Amino acid sequence: MTDSIIYALDFDGVICDSALETALTGWKAAATIWNGMAETAPPELVEQFRAVRPIIETGYEAILVIRLLYAGETTESIYAGYGEKAQALMADAGLTVEGLKQLFGDTRDQWIAEDKAGWIAVNPLFAGMAEKLNRLGSNHDWYVVTTKQERFVKKILNANDIELAADRIFGLDRNMSKPEVLKGLQRSHPGRPIYFVEDRLPSLQNVRKHSELAELRLGFALWGYNLPQDKTQAEAEGCWPIHLEDFLEGDAGFGRA
């Protein structure tokens, strides 16, 4: 595989449709901070969460988004002022980012310990993705580049019979930005083309700020957690919008694998 393409894939929104699990974990965690929240998240609030999911970069933010929705914020009001609302909520409750990350991971761990099958069930891979990744692995080197904690990525991949070495999963645990991870992959695989597939436009825009990464091919996963208007902007900024069926078939300029 010395001359083959390197695929760097985001996880949530590209490989795994984790919106439901993220919402439910966010609710469980939020209920330990704020009294009065029922044990089970209302279905209508979970649906609202899915609409707001594109704004979330890292899983722990689900705790804040769930609480904002529970407090009566609309999806529109959250989009209009998410940063300020999240900061105010954290300040009011005396929360820190590191504390929320820890709580979110611990809440997942407890759920898995109590009901691993149930947790896996609400973390489905997108249809056809498992077959694609197993096929990809026979022709190319591929990596996961995510803000998710690595142990959860491993559990979901293993549950879907997908083998990926631990050193090919770059997650939250490493305290590295996605551009830093991608630069490392460039150094590890000099001269080989790298295709980065991501569903969040801001993440792709952040990669484009780094001149060292100018040679990367950036794929914008339209099946993930993004907004319709993001497609036009992605194209205008040199990213390649990809439909799921094209990615699964290996078309859209991302190699047949």
Automatic annotation (TrEMBL):
Keyword set, alphabetical order: Hydrolase
Matches recorded under InterPro entries: HAD-like_hydrolase_sf, HAD-like_sf, HAD_sf
Name of the protein this chain belongs to: HAD family hydrolase
Molecular-function annotations in GO: hydrolase activity
Coiled coil, from the record: none
Recorded superkingdom: Bacteria
